[in-house]
From TrEMBL:
The gene is trmD. This is tRNA (guanine-N(1)-)-methyltransferase. It comes from Lysobacter concretionis Ko07 = DSM 16239. The lineage of its organism: Bacteria, Pseudomonadati, Pseudomonadota, Gammaproteobacteria, Lysobacterales. Residues 1-224 form the tRNA methyltransferase TRMD/TRM10-type domain. InterPro entries: Alpha/beta_knot_MTases (IPR029028), tRNA_m1G_MeTrfase_C_sf (IPR023148), tRNA_m1G_MeTrfase_TrmD (IPR002649), tRNA_m1G_MTases_N (IPR029026), tRNA_MeTrfase_TRMD/TRM10 (IPR016009). It catalyses: guanosine(37) in tRNA + S-adenosyl-L-methionine = N(1)-methylguanosine(37) in tRNA + S-adenosyl-L-homocysteine + H(+).
């Protein structure tokens, strides 16, 4: 998969992508991340990328032309079709289902705003989709781009050392993940639940399912509406 990022801070994106699972996915040739700085496409000795908003008011707005030139350079760098996504607090909230959809694409292009945002005409003409990483306002789209890069990198086949681990994560089956424990069995903070050392795989699976159901009910009850619950699940939740 190829991800292009339009950002005034492409080094930040490169740094974020260099570590952990994302870094390994890049090393293994499963993913490539390319930064494009609109300032490199700006004109004049100041290489200006922003200007004051029409109508007055605070802040600056990102100019159309440097962004459009950077978008074109990024698109032309590879012949594969690309979906252009603007990171904005006004976009659709990012979900694990959306991450799966993006991870299955061969190529995406992430557009990061700064200041008050981007001239709306560029958004209307060039953007396919707007995504938000939450109901709060950041000073730039770079953290959102880094979030998407990380989330899609770990879904690339071969990125995780254990292929099953992503399938068991929160949201994959609609529920939150169960709690996890490791050595030591006894600790001053408590003991590991005995069922996990029973060797009874059916019992362990049942316990984990019930923990997931209980956590989801307690922390994110609205998620249960989208889950295909078995009769045993319903009985457990009712009890
Ligand atoms: N004036 C804009 C508004 O209120 O909708 C906010 C602009 S924000 C200060 C600057 C840039 O940060 C945005 O253009 C966007 O790229 C990015 N950004 C801020 N919050 C974000 C969020 N929750 N999700 C994704 N991107 C965000």
């Amino acid at each position: 998969m190829r991800i292009d990022v339009i950002s005034l801070f492409p080094d930040f994106i490169a740094q974020c992508a260099a570590f952990g699972v994302t870094g390994r996915a890049i090393e293994r040739g499963l993913l490539s991340v390319h930064g494009w700085n609109p300032r490199d496409h700006a004109e004049g000795s100041y290489r200006r990328v922003d200007d004051r908003p029409f109508g007055g008011g605070p802040g600056m707005v990102m100019l159309i032309d440097p962004l459009r030139a950077a978008l074109r350079a990024a698109r032309d760098a590879d012949p594969a079709p690309v979906r252009t996504i603007y990171l904005t607090p006004q976009g659709a909230p990012l979900t694990q289902a959306k991450v799966h959809e993006l991870a299955e694409r061969g190529r995406i292009l992430l557009l990061c705003g700064r200041y008050e945002g981007i001239d709306e005409r560029l958004v209307e003409a060039e953007v396919d989709e707007e995504i938000s990483i939450g109901d709060y306002v950041l000073s730039g789209g770079e953290l959102g781009a880094a979030v998407i890069i990380d989330a899609v990198a770990r879904l690339q086949e071969g990125a995780l050392n254990d292929a099953d681990s992503a399938a068991q994560d929160s949201f994959e089956n609609g529920l939150l993940d169960c709690p996890h424990y490791t050595r030591p069995v006894e600790h001053e903070l408590g003991a590991v639940p005995p069922v996990l050392m029973s060797g009874n795989h059916a019992e362990i699976a049942r316990w984990r399912r019930q923990q997931s159901l209980e956590r989801t009910l307690r922390r994110r009850p609205e998620l249960l509406d989208g889950v295909d619950l078995s009769p045993a699940d319903r009985q457990f939740l009712a009890g």
